[in-house]
Amino acid sequence: MRTITLRGGEFLLREVEPAQVFTPEDFTSEDLLLAQAAEEFVRGEVQPRNEAIEKQEEGLTVRLLKKAGELGLLGADLPEAFGGLELPKTTSTLIAEKMSLQASFAVSWGAHVGIGTLPILFFGTPEQKQKYLPRLAKGELIAAFALSEANCGSDPLSARTKATLAPDGKHYLLNGEKMWTTNAGWADLFIVFAKVDGEKFTAFIVERGFPGVSVGREEHKMGIKGSSTRRVILDNAQVPVENVLHEIGKGHHVAFGVLNIGRFKLAAAALGGSKEALTIATRYAKERQQFGQPIANFGLIKHKLAEMATQIYALESTVYRTAGMLDEVFHGIDPLAPDANAQYREADEEYPVECAILKVFGSEVLDYVADETVQIHGGFGYTEEFHAAQIYRDSRINRIFEGTNEINRLLMLDQLMRRALKGKLPGLMEAAQAIRAELNQPQMPTPDPIDPLEAIGKYIVNAKKAILMTAGMAVEQVGTELEEKQEIVAHLADCLIQLYAMESVWLRTRKLQQKGLDITIPLAMTRVFAYEAFDTIEAHARRALHAFAEGDMLQILLAALKRYTRRTSEVNTMALRRQIADYVLQHERAWMAGGK
After folding, report:
1. Is the pLDDT reported for residue 416 higher than 70?
2. Above 50 in pLDDT, residue 553?
3. Do residues 251 and 193 lie in contact, with contact meaning Cβ atoms separated by under 8 Å?
4. Neighbouring residues of 366: CB distance < 8 A, sequence distance ≥ 6
5. Most CB atoms within 10 A, among 42, 366, 405, 473?
6. Residues 567, 534: contact at Cβ < 8 Å?
7. Could you tell me where the DSSP H helices lie in 112-180?
8. Secondary structure of 523-581 in the HEC alphabet?
9. How do residues 71-107 score in pLDDT, each as one tens digit?
10. Do 121 and 82 touch, CB atoms closer than 8 A?
11. Non-local CB neighbours of 10 within 8 Å, separated by 6+ positions
12. Dihedral of CA 228/229/235/240: which sign?
């Protein structure tokens, strides 16, 4: 592993400097031009065809995907050697954000460039890569990912689809059905998972034209109606042996590996969708008149707009911090090297905790923003005449995509422990033990620093200690049964989500300050988000403690928690929110440096 600033999960243990973190203000003019091209494509070619896309006009989405391919928008993450642009992960994330402005098309695009294409890049043979990747980059082929089955949505390893070697030894015969396959209606190839001889979970590259491959009817969905979601039916489907992807019996590497990047890119799409919803809600609030004035003048509407903008600022800070971390591990991989696949897999497996955090945080921020957009529209928001209703319907799937949010919450702690046991997160157990030893030392409460950013920095250090203390005691008290105590794990996961976002926001605002930029609005949003995140961490830690301790032990642990979550300063969040809302109403967006 090349030298990197922060390994996966280390945000819980280490401090980093603002200069080490990538923020949206670090984009170059070239990056912004690429983002502008993506946004102009969506606003000029996709959004005007919203109604036709939602009705799945024959061939429309495929034509749009092919046009995106002509513009290079399908190959941002692919190496130049295979027809891609080989852009940094930060830049490809920015493109993903801009491509999300029409949700159905964003889902089709995202499934193609992410979980449909990356398995071949990360796991394919040189022959498979040369055969498929250039055509996928151009949009000559559209890809899909067929993993789920009717009885194994969150447990893909229990799949029933089977693969049997044909008598000629040249083909595998696949039998089974895959559910919920995005792009199934128009995909040219599928990444399909089946058990060889009913036991060895394996990935295959399956072309639509192979004998025995067909698809079912379109699912009648609540939202993202313009995306194609069908069953993939495999009836003695003949798949050449050279189309086995990776190794027989190692399909779980393929399935779980690319889902990390899929989760991360989902958060980027949620960010773009949230920004668009905030703009729509803001414009409506300025136009809608009640009691002789725009509803934007009312305090509760300002509260909503400010909270939406604050959550978006937090999500944006966390997404691009993580994109910068991904850049560090993916940078320098030679796609033609003999060990390229191993390097890709090592990079992809570095941040499963952070990707799971972002998937949950991003989808729940989008849900919140979408819900408040409807609320600001009032009764009109509940009608299909206004776009708010479609935003609301489309947002809901993101808490189910790429592993449900419940599964991803469980994954966070599981991955932290796995990384620690494998030596990939050294110091985790020692840090928890050190916190316990620290509790035996008397400590006098100290007042919070006067400077608000310094105070928040103190809260972040203490929040890490509170989480380590709570998690360490949970492991000690519950032991191997902790995995079954899902409610405790979920509380700890929510602590991790709030901590990672809180620190990301704080680092970004400090970096803006160090650059000499005006941080009036970023500081207001940082204070609002951080104070509430700190309270949320305390609440979830407290609930976790109540779940596994009682009596004197509980009282001792609650006192220890209070030691780390005590604060002496308060903040007038109403005044800060009004300040944020005034900015949003003036600019019709969340904060952006220099108005870029």
Report:
1. yes
2. yes
3. yes
4. 270, 271, 273, 274, 277, 395, 398
5. 366
6. yes
7. 118-123, 126-138
8. HHHHHHHHHHHHHHHHHHHHHHHHHHCCHHHHHHHHHHHHHHHCCCCCCCHHHHHHHHH
9. 999 999 999 999 999 999 999 999 999 999 999 999 9
10. yes
11. 425
12. positive
Residue 241 binned pLDDT confidence (cut-offs 50, 70, 90):
very high
Catalytic residues: 402
Q: 358 and 322 in contact (C-beta within 8 Å)?
A: yes
What is the enclosing helix (H) or strand (E) of 163? strand 162-165
User: H or E segment at 356?
Assistant: helix 352-377
With a CB cutoff of 8 Å and minimum separation 6, the contacts of 222 are 393, 396, 397
Question: Residue 152: which pLDDT band, with cuts at 50, 70 and 90?
Answer: confident
- Give the whole-angstrom CA distance, residue 102 versus residue 118: 23
Query: How many CB atoms lie under 10 A from the CB of residue 300?
Result: 10
Q: Which amino acid is at 557?
A: L
Q: Delineate the domains of the chain, giving CATH numbers in brackets.
A: 143-248 (2.40.110.10), 427-595 (1.20.140.10)
Q: Where are the alpha helices (DSSP H) in 77-143?
A: 89-98, 103-111, 118-123, 126-138
As given in the structure block, the two tokens for residue 141 are: 């082929």
pLDDT digit string, tens, across residues 314-372: 999 999 999 999 999 999 999 999 999 999 999 999 999 999 999 999 999 999 999 99
How many of the other CB atoms lie within 10 Å of CB of 40? 12
pTM over 0.70: yes
